[in-house]
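Subject: mismatched residue count in predicted assembly?

I count 1596 residues in my input, but I want to confirm that the predicted structure covers every chain. Input:
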Amino acid sequence: MKTSIYGQLAAFPSEESFRAGLLGLQKAGCVQLEAYTPYPIEPPVLRGATTPMAGIMFFAGAAGAAGGYFLQWYGARDYPLNIGGRPLNSWPAFVPITFEMMVLTAALVGVVALCFLAGLPRLHHPVFADPRFRRASQDRFFICLRADDPLYTHEDVRRALADAHPESIAEVSA
Amino acid sequence: MESPHQPTAAPATPDFWRSLDERALTPEFHERLVREFPFVATLAPSELDRRHFVKLMGASIALAGMTGCVRRSVDKIVPYVVAPETAIPGRPDYYATAMTVEGFARGIVVDSHEGRPTKIEGNPDHPESLGATDAITQAAILSLYDPDRSRGPRSKAGTGDWAAFESEWAKHQGALLTAQGEGLALLIEPTSSPSLRRELQRILEHFPKARWYQHTPLAAYETGGVQADYDFAQADVILTIGSDCLYRHPAALRYSRAFAGRRRVENGRVRMNRFYALESTPTVTGTLADFRLPASPARMRVVLNAIALAIAHNPPSAGDLSPAEMNFVRALADDLRQHAPAVVCIAGAEEDADIQRWALALNAHSGAGGKTVRFLASQRSDSDRASAGDLTALGGAMRRGEVTRLFILGSNPVYTAPADLDFAGLLSKIAFSVHHGSHADETAALCTWHLPESHWLETWGDLRAYDGTATILQPLIERLFDTRSSLEILRLLTAPPGTQAYDMVHETWQHESSGSDFDVHWSRWLNAGVVDGSAAPAIAGPAVDGSFPVLTPPTTEASPVLILQPDATILDGRWANNAWLQELPKPLTQLVWDNAALVSPAFASRLGIASGDLLALSVGLQTLDAAAWIMPGQADDCITLSLGYGRTAAGSVGTGRGFDAYRLRTTEALWRRSGLQVRKIGGRYALVTTQQHFSMEGRDLVRVVPPDALSVPPPVANPTLYPAWKSSGYAWGMSIDLSTCLGCNACIVACQAENNIAVVGKDQVARGRQMHWIRVDTYFEGDPANPRVVHQPVPCMQCENAPCELVCPVGATTHSSEGLNDMVYNRCVGTRYCSNNCPYKVRRFNFFDLRPSPDALSILQQNPNVTVRERGVMEKCTYCVQRINAARITAEKEDRPIRDGEIKTACQQACPAEAIVFGNLADPESKVSRRKREPTNYLLLEDLNTRPRTTYLAKVRHPAGGTAS
Amino acid sequence: MKPEIDPPRDHLDEALIAPGQTLESVTRTISDIPLKHPYPRFWWTGFLVAFALVMLLLTSIAWLFTRGIGIWGVNVPVAWGFAIVNFVWWIGIGHAGTFISAILLLLHQTWRTSINRFTEAMTLFAVACAGLFPILHLGRPQFFFWLLPYPDSMGLWPQFRSPLEWDVFAVGTYATVSVIFWYVGLLPDLATMRDRAVTRFKARIYGLFSLGWRGDARHWVHYQKLYILLAGLAAPLVVSVHTIVGLDFAIAILPGWHSTIFPPYFVAGAIFSGFSMVLTLIIPLRAIYKLQGLITARHLDLMAKVMMATGWIVIYGYLEEFFNAWRSGDIFERFVDVNRAIGPYAGYFWVLMACNVIAPQFLWSRRLRSNVVVLFVVALMVNVGMWIERFVIVVTSLHRDFLPSSWGMFHATFWDYATLAGSVGLFLALLFLFLRFLPAISMTEMRGFVAKKGTDS
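Triage response: the counts match. Full output below for your records.
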């Protein structure tokens, strides 16, 4: 029986050819596309690549700040002591810790969010099977047209990919 | 009788004693005892007979934490004020007794926890204490638990015990009886003890040809069998001539109290006296004076002659007096004329005889006799007809070979004898010599026998105070070691062993008292700590008319004079092994653990001397190397060195510290020696002080006001944004009167004894790590040659806005509802930020583990109501919170508020001048509240708005160079 | 912040990377250092020296815990000594990293690219050294956790008004966020290392830590956003941390500490010392590992300028202190400054002036600035000067405060110096391990930089 196919993996020597290939495929209507680059490409060329990171970290920070202040307020109330004649709720003295807690929470949540959004850690992935892919983290640009794309077998798509003159092109098995 | 501690007839002996003995004898108990208290084990004799064991128990039972009764002496002792039928564990009992101060009685009340004496306070009913104590009295308790005390008799051969000594003595006794005591000599310190003197009489009756000599390295407080006694309360003008009568004198506490009464501002008024001091070396007393004139012994005589002339309206000729001397003489003469007879002139006991006479003459001339000055028969045995003389006389007799058997009781002549006497050499030639003392000291080493002396808190005795009042000494604790009292030793000379000190004292007083119901009197005397009506009557003074002796200056004018004086803390060396006194800063120099050769600033600059330089002092045949200390206010052309240091066998604490001034002493010149040669020999010596900087740097720390303008800017409430914390109920506060503070440092030791404060040693003090919770700062102002001196006791200020509390990250120091700045040792992690942020620097840190090891004898002294602090935690003055809580408990049980004055902090209780007052600020009528309303009230570093609860009353002093008002 | 480091871009680019660098070349140059381990003799000697000092540190700590704080020179009044001085010094050094990575990133200073990874690592190790001291200097270090807010069985909480408590949070947060920032930046490079690793074992280890990063375009979007936001957080954080360290002193009422200038002047001092430390380390390293192609003279020149700028802020702080003391008329404040200049510790003060005020002025001259030896010596002096500055602040303020009766002196003991030397050893040892196993320059960012250059030209 035939092993299932993950997709077509095309390698490009330069950012320009890579961009061209990607635009071609997207024009041809492909949706299940993956792109791999050795450094972040500005501006993002892949359609629909957006991130909720900002919102997540903002709310995390807000929660951290609130929690930080509450911690101090509660600590002073829970075991009320006269400290140098200062009031229990010495808010000016509580500002620094409030700020630090804001930063800490936001940063921690941010990293967790990255892992969650990017599905990391994921130590195994079909593309790793392709020996060419080792250069994806160095000096090559890859486009992967996944097998589950409705147009995967369509002739125009094959042509569009070929017109972009990839360095090489091959199927990777799932 | 087996146990020497149980009188033959002791009906009051409680039953539990027997049961205790039984218990003590069980092997497992002994095993536990030894395991827990190794130091007992070290004493343990190979085979334990009952009698030994009872004594071993002594050192340990209190630690064993058994009920206190067992450690209380089994004899009939009577507690002070309230007599508990049975001791209640956890509640201290108080017993009145007395300790000897240079042979005189000082009445004390001893605080005893579970049978362990832990703290000495003054006896308010005793005329020479009035409830106060000095530093030495406070520290005396530590010597009871001195691990270096000798623990059993020791013969030169090596080991020995009482039985061995008794049998050996029996042989001599026989020989002596036939010879009527020929060749028997006794050497004791002059004493006021009726029983001792009675026993000496007894011996002389028994051995007519025996001789008793007296020796003390300190000066006598009498001339020709007469003591002068002064009334500082009535004196309007005071002149002290080299006298430290408010600090070191058998009556110093009474004098200080009276003097303070004339310097204290009350209700905005003060009945100021005018105080002149003429002295060669600064004394605590002299630096209190309004007008102080430093003068070398030579100049002193010139000045005194001038004063004598000036009083007789012969103005001194400016030629032979410096301007400063001239002003002093003029002002003093005017004052003396105006205020006679309300005049007191007192010359230091160390001054020469003719100066003493001069002082008596001035008193007589002013008609002070019978008014501010009265005379008493000598209370000490110095000029007892029966006595064969002093150490010099004994030395002579020994040299002539008239002494074959010598008993030395409670004195250490090998160390304290003048250098030219070579007492050590003479002593080693004596066939049979016996030393009886608390330590195996320099003298013990050269004697055939050393017999251990019981501590005065372990045995019965009696003493008379300077004013004649007698006190029966009662034992507070069973003898810790196999020791005997001097009474028992003396009785041993003439009688078979076994007689108890108790019986001897008892029978003395049966003779003294007038017959009927003696036992009632007896227990009342024990209870109150004074034998009522025993004060000595005034007698006619020595025959001096008002004519002044003309004082001839010494011939060798050129070279400086050597002045010897008793040490401020260890006296003649007898307290050398007391760590509290060694680490107690000496007034004015703040030196610890050492003595030093005090030189005047001018003299130092002439010879290029810096403090700590080693000097070679040579006078006559004697020489000594000693470290120099530049002493502001020291008279030029004289160098002062204090006795008591350089000991070779004082014990683990006192041996080998400082410089032995006795080596410069001769029988002819005990206190003043002219013809001194001083040479810098290069090389430095580490002199350590608790205070390095003696100038106020122009900062407003100690305020001084003249008596005619009694006011300082009143404290103002600085504005603040913080809502006030309301204090509930009591608001504790303290007021310290700088006008009456003598700077005697008694408060420091009192605090140390009360609060289990550790001793850190010289090298740690050098690193700035002393632990005293209260310190007495000393500042010199003005001309270094004759500065104005002020003292300022600084405990924790208990700030309401405490800077220390704010910066502690764990809340280890917080504020109590009653205004105390509480230090929570258990919570402290030791960031030390609180100390950095304390503007008064009153916090102390445990840099090392300073706790006494569990097997240390001194642990018996520790106050069970005060936490012992561990390594790495901060500590500080607590206003004696344990005393506050004790009073609170009592008050609540009696369902009443705490009374004003019911709580006395340790420093307050010790203070002879009543300079410290503690109490409830919430009560406007409390003593402390009233004091804080005085016009001289001010806050230290007020601008910081720390709002201290401890405040000060400005020092009142006549402006310098002021003339008669 | 510093306009003078914004010359025309082309010139900047030319200077910031040697010509002829390609994606492949930068990747190789950088990844070869950990993978091929060149110059082993240098590495081993350096590492072993550092390791010996680490042993000294451990010995000192063991003795400290056995005997107590008393083995140091601290006392009353000078209850804080080397421990706090070292803490402030290290935490200051730890500021350059985050400053370079975060603030310069936000300011679009592309020249940071080739040094940020290394300086971030430096930051971590400096903070690690700094973190030791607050715990070591406790009287009862075994209870350090009482400073942490945990539900205590007695209902006790830390005292949040204390600046020391703020420190716990500030330093804790700073350490955590620095690690995160550093690791996130490292992620794609770890993937590169995985893919270039020669042995299967190394590949697995690097692969493990790279979390299976594949450079997926969608991941890059999240990644970019997270990285810039972390930078946005780290920038105020780095300022807050040394502000709070400054408040440790400013909150106290002690003359010489109680001053509002402290926070800004501490921050400037931190960056000043941080950059000097970066230079002290990078100048030899780029020579030894032949990295002149990536860390060019232009980089050194720019860092030197930052040093001068922050140096002048610090000088302003000094002047401000004296001016305030004089202007306030407070006799205690005035005395502290006079005492610093002519008191028992005057020697320290004048060495401080020579190192922090005089030495950096040589860098005005372009010729001296471009001379690496001069630059290295100046940077070294500033490191020393900044340590002494903290010593002067801590000790000379404490040893003579309000009451002359309690004035005292501080004398450092052998163990004070041993602990300081040991912490330097720890710092170097960690740096050597970093050089040995991780890419010291961000390959990802270098590739992006090379690529941009390609497109620009």
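The mean pLDDT of chain A is 86. Marking this ticket as 'not a bug'.
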